[in-house]
Amino acid sequence: MKIVTVVKDAAYRDKLEKLLRKLRQEYKSAGTASGGQEGYRLIKEEVPDLIIADISLPRTDGLLMLKKVRKEKIYSKVILIAEKEDFLIDLESYKKSL
Questions:
Q1: What are phi and psi of 8, to 5 degrees?
Q2: Which residue, among 78, 77, 69, has the nearest Cα to 98 in the 3D structure?
Q3: Distance in angstroms (rounded) separating the CA atoms of residues 19 and 61
Q4: 26 forms bridges with which residues in the sheet?
Q5: So what's the pLDDT on residue 12?
Q6: Quick one: DSSP state of residue 42?
């Protein structure tokens, strides 16, 4: 399973990568990114099976990045990570924009 991780915090990104390697041997990192634009380019290039993405990303937030990915007809599974208290508001805004 190819996985792309798009998380702004480098320490958290590294912890996720280590955890994935420990969980299953077949989990392969297809790359990591710290921002939405960089993540979008990586996802478009790698077309991973799974995307782990932060909602709050520099330049292009995680929801906008995923919307752009879906427009490219890339239907990877997604795990969203949120630190923000207003995550549900962001998610509702995203749903309305589809």
A1: -70, -35
A2: 69
A3: 24
A4: none
A5: 86
A6: H
